[in-house]
Amino acid sequence: MKRFVAVALGILTAIGGFVDIGDIVANAETGARFGMSLAWVVVVGVIGICLFAEMAGRVATVSGRAVFDLVRERLGARVALVNLGASFFITFLTLAAEIGGVALAIELATSVNYLLWVPIVAFLVWLVVWRVKFDVMENVFGLAGLALVVAAVALWRLGPDWGGLLHGATHPAVPQGESHPTWWFFAIALLGAAMTPYEVFFFSSGAVEEGWSRADLITNRLNVYLGFPLGGLLSLTLMAGATLFLEPRGIQPGHLSQVALPTLLVLGKLGLAVLLVGFFAATFGAALETGLSCGYSIAQYFGFQWGKFVRPADAPRFHLITLVSITAGAGLVLTTVDPITVTEYSIVLSAAALPLTYFPILVVANDPDYMGDKVNSWFTNALGSLYLVLLLVVAVATIPLMILTKAGS
Amino acid sequence: MAGRVLDAGLHLLDRQLVDRDGRLAGKVDDLELTFPDGGGPPRVTAILVGPAALGRRLGGRLGAWVEAVANRLGDGEDRRPARVSFAVVKRIGSAVELSAPKAELETDRLEAWTRDHVIGHLPGASDAPD
Amino acid sequence: MRRSTAVVGVLLLLGGCTGPVRSVNVYESKAGRTAEVAASAVQTALLAVEAADGGKAHGRYLTQVLVEAEEDATSAQGTFDAIQPPDRRADALRVRLDGLLGEATENLAELRIAARRGHLAELPELARPLPEVAEQLASFAEAHG
Asked: C66 is in which domain, residue-wise?
């Protein structure tokens, strides 16, 4: 029974923790502009992240060390340094976006300008990283993130034309009046949002933090294969809401308040309140994860002590890096750049850097020195390689498309 | 520890250093080789740790950049790479295990500085993680 | 490092053209785009008012939505007005669009003021002209986008 509860908790946490500000923005904007025609991208993204997260989790579980830790040993200091540079930059940008997202969610609940909340949010994020136990942190925010399910409930209550939605999703086509390059650009952004690199580092480092061992391999797989797809479904719910309420009216959601409209219109004040809790939990949780990932990535490259499983005094540089990253992230938001814009850039640049961040995982997961008999199966390798080719194509196409479509405007 | 033949590039460089208590103490960023007086091939006498050592090994623009970071982080005496005598190496597995605790190693310099000047001052820094 | 600065530079240039545009086609498409943004803001306001009518939302959220809608429309107008029209034909376009934008921002401002004062009951009445404005903006965007 206890085992069951632990596993269920892991899955629920994975679902609630899947969505972050990038997914919220990407799915709402895409739904409002292209209906469900890009839903398939979320599916592709979820399969990809399941594949690589399982690998990263397995590496950490079997070898006792996080993936990023091993990248330098396996691929050499130069390659790993380039990898670090790209990963850190994007994770930092995502951190700033998440901090902005939390501030926006609170603004929506309180009507107090989001900028005033930024320093408080940054402080709270740091405080939780500093004091709260790792698994408590994960469980609380993961479960609270499940509040986003209210968007699905709203959809259900509405009783929309499911056939129509499904048809739109299964017949991907560029809607009338929209250009093909823009459609593909949004596809890339959606993929970047679903497969953001920090999720993999964090998952891997998290497995070490929680002390997973071989006995936890199955739990690892369940969390990933059940939790992430359901999390993806939650993202799609936001896309559907935008498709049903925003697209017909030509509303382009540039504000979090507009993303909340569908839920508000169906479920009223209560629905909105629950949704806001969900927004807060999802973005705050992601801020914690990206903040920690900034620390993990640098510490794991240079080899100094990292993690919340030791006293802060025993991992001073790790904590300093995390603290500085959170502060700098808040600083970026305080320049009054639109947090939604930061989010958009973070997901697009994530897409551009995906092959760099995912390739090492595939390499390490195949190494028998670390994995013993738990190396990748031929199927995992085949699928993983296929994904790397796809990610390479996406990466190459990203910047040209961004310039061509003027970042999707 | 003497006499074992290893491919330094494969089994030593970029490996994680783990101290006597299982704590992480940096990576093998570079190796100090000494030519014995009597002639013959050079022997590894120490492991060099830190961005200064790493930058030098990487070379090129990337290496120069890493070295610049190292220079920012310390001055004068602190700029030379931290040295871990090979005598302290206990075992070479997937990580390089050392027989000394972290605090006794030169690699702890920056960690200690950070602890003493920044992190240590924050409340709760010494609290065990429940 | 230098290459990425160049890319960012190009992006900034593309994103922020406010000087004269070379052809009337470019001007026209910018006008169309502006109308789209304004229409989106108006429609958002309409949805918010719909929610208010049904008693579904409280004042704080509504005010937020209406403030943002007004900001979006006003800033779109500001950006558009800063662009130098290339010729006479563009001038006519500008006059027409400005008329529509003015109407939109005026209405949105009234909604915002009422919401801020907590007069939620007035909102549906104040929003009455909006569907027409939205319709006109949408057809403008269609014609010139």
From this structure: 25-144
How confident is chain A (409 residues) per 10-residue block, as mean pLDDT?
Answer: 81 88 96 94 95 92 87 88 91 97 95 95 96 91 93 91 87 84 94 92 90 87 91 95 94 94 92 95 95 94 92 91 96 96 94 90 89 90 95 94 83
Q: Tens digit of pLDDT for each residue in A51-65?
A: 999 999 999 988 888
Q: Assess A257–C contact: CB distance below 8 Å, yes or no.
A: yes
Write out chain A residues lying below 8 Å of B14, CB-based: 72-73, 76-77, 80
Q: What is the pLDDT of residue A267?
A: 93
Helix boundaries (H) for A111-173:
114-131, 134-145, 149-158, 162-170
Whether residues A320 and B114 touch (CB distance < 8 A) is answered with yes
Nearest by Cα to A26 from A18, C10, A333: A18
How many structural domains are present in chain C?
A: 1
Tell me whether residue C83 is in a domain: yes
Residue among A88, A127, A314 with most chain B CBs within 10 A, to mutate: A314
| Cα separation values, C109 from A105, C66, C114, Å | 24, 8, 9
CA A66 to CA A16: how far, in whole Å?
Answer: 23
- Residue B1: per-residue pLDDT: 47
DSSP lists the bridge partners of residue B16 as B27
What pTM did the predictor assign?
0.91
Its domain, for residue A400, covers 8-404
Sorted by where each begins, the domain ranges of chain B are 8-121
Kindly identify which residue of chain B lies nearest to residue A69, measuring between CA atoms.
B16
**CATH code where residue C134 lies:** 1.20.120.660
User: Hey, what CATH topology would domain B8-121 get?
Assistant: SH3 type barrels. (2.30.30)
